[in-house]
Structure formats: C-alpha cells, structure tokens
TrEMBL record:
<dbReference type="InterPro" id="IPR041049">
    <property type="entry name" value="DUF5615"/>
</dbReference>
<feature type="domain" description="DUF5615">
    <location>
        <begin position="5"/>
        <end position="62"/>
    </location>
</feature>
<dbReference type="Pfam" id="PF18480">
    <property type="entry name" value="DUF5615"/>
</dbReference>
<protein>
    <recommendedName>
        <fullName>DUF5615 domain-containing protein</fullName>
    </recommendedName>
</protein>
C-alpha cells in the first residue's frame, strides 16, 4: 500500500487518470480552492507528504525551496516537500502522453525508480515530450535523515 499521494495543481487536473486513483488528491480534497496561491499548495503538500504535480515550473521551482527553507528544529518544524513533478508540455493530450511515457522510465543516479522513491527521496521530476524525464533532488530539510545519505 502506498503511503504517499499526488496533489494535482488546478492546471493538471486532467492528469488524474495517469496516476493510481486512490493516490490522487485534488486541491479541494485538502481544503484549497482552484484560486489558492502556489504557496498555499506547497504548504498543504508539505503538511500531508504529497508529491505536487503541476505545469507551472516557474512559480513552483521558486516556492518549493523557499518553503523548505522555513524548516526549524521546533516540533512540527520540518517543511520538507516530498516531491515535485513538473509536466512541461502545455497541451493536455501531449502532457498525458509524456507522463504515460515517463511511467516506468524514471531513473535517479543511474538506477530505475518509481513514484515511491520520488516521495521517499524528495525528488523533482521534469517531464517533457522530447526526452526522458529529468530527476534531481529537491532541497532537503537539514534535520531529516534520508535513506540515500550516509
């Protein structure tokens, strides 16, 4: 049973069927509206341990590191974001195809991974139609221990 969920931004709601149904949350499922700010979406995803899925690279690539930087040693002070999936193509059909092609082809540091590892290792996945998905680490909470760290 998966312990993580995908939180879909309003601009990629149509991609819900690209992920296992019981693992998909829409903004309204976490008490947000389609007019919620990107910062509110990042905060909700962080609190719930969700992977954010969006087409809005510019804003989320700024908001996610800023949110993680608010981490503190206080109780409930961890502001980690457990994954960010940016689906680059603007056209809905192309997004669906690119994401479908990405499933099963994710690799990180030379080894195949799945969505669970994206969540566990707090990774960013950039999905485009031209090439394999690019997977990199998001900034990490300085107080948490990740299984790929010594």
């Amino acid at each position: 049973m998966a312990s993580f969920k995908f939180l879909l931004d309003h601009d990629v709601r149509h991609l819900a069927k690209s992920f296992p149904g019981k693992q998909v949350l829409m903004l309204e499922d976490v008490g947000l509206s389609q007019h919620s700010s990107d910062g509110e979406i990042v905060e909700a995803a962080s609190e719930r341990g969700c992977i954010i899925v969006t087409n809005n690279a510019r804003d989320f690539e700024k908001e996610v590191p800023e949110h993680i930087a608010t981490t503190s040693k206080k109780a409930k002070g961890c502001a980690q974001v457990h994954g960010l999936v940016i689906v680059i193509p603007p056209e809905k059909f192309v997004q669906e195809k690119a994401l479908s092609d990405a499933n099963g082809t994710l690799t990180f540091e030379g080894r195949p991974i799945g969505w669970k590892e994206v969540s566990d290792l707090c990774l960013k996945v950039v999905v485009s139609k031209e090439k394999r998905p690019m997977v990199t680490k998001l900034p990490r909470c300085p107080y948490c221990k990740f299984r790929d760290e010594g």
